[in-house]
Design brief:
It is a single chain. This protein is mainly alpha-helical. It has 8 helices and 3 strands. The protein has a 3-stranded antiparallel beta sheet, sandwiched between helices. α1 packs antiparallel against α3 and α4 crosses α5. The two termini are 28 Å apart. It binds manganese (III) ion. The site of manganese (III) ion (MN3) has 7 residues, from α1.
Length: 201
């Protein structure tokens, strides 16, 4: 059964960029709900209990057809949020180091250009979803966005960083101003975590 991963920081640790109430509700209510619903699938399909969530998302056909949609939404929600918490930290932001920085500049022209393209992906995602930096099938960095809780793992991409742009991620603090949330979020990015993912490719 899935359980909430331990947060490495307190609910108010990302203030002023992400406020305590948003973090607490997002983690305790939203993430927990994805876990509870994904666990319902594990209860109905005990053969899935020995597989970790990433393995299942990479090949959703291991889930019986009638449960695939619910697992995609809730197993995906669990995996995406687990990654999201890991990719943030208090006093984050700044620039990635060495390999990842060079790769971003090589691919997107400059770090600023990368940030703009990532923000565009996050801003233009209509409705609920995520913006991602991934390694694609050619092992190249790529920016894209997914709807709902679709995970890059479902497309066999390696997620390097991901940003939740569901309204529940920002509405309490930023209301309808998604662009303001994006601007703030760069201040809590844990580049060390992103580098770790990039370097383990
Ligand atoms: Mn969320």
């Amino acid at each position: 059964m899935y359980i909430l991963p331990q947060l490495r920081y307190s609910f108010d640790a990302l203030e002023p960029y992400i406020d305590r109430a948003t973090m607490e509700i997002h983690y305790k209510k939203h993430h927990q709900a994805y876990i509870d619903n994904a666990n319902k699938v594990l209860i109905a399909c005990p053969e899935l209990q020995s597989l970790n969530v990433e393995v299942i998302l990479k090949d959703i056909s291991v889930v019986p057809a009638k449960y695939q949609e619910i697992f995609k939404n809730h197993g995906g929600g669990h995996a995406n949020h687990t990654l999201f918490w890991e990719l943030m930290k208090p006093y984050g932001g700044g620039l990635p180091k060495d390999g990842l920085q060079h790769a971003l500049i090589k691919k997107f022209g400059s770090f600023q250009q990368f940030q703009e393209l990532f923000n565009d992906a996050a801003k233009s995602r209509f409705g609920s979803g995520w913006a991602w930096l991934v390694l694609n099938h050619e092992q190249e960095l790529m920016i894209y966005s997914t709807a709902n809780q679709d995970s890059p793992l479902m497309h066999n991409y390696i997620p390097i960083m991901g940003l939740d742009v569901w309204e529940h991620a920002y509405y309490l603090q930023y209301k309808n101003l998604r662009a303001d949330y994006l601007k703030s979020w760069w201040n809590v990015v844990d580049w060390k975590e992103a580098e770790k993912r990039f370097n383990s490719k």
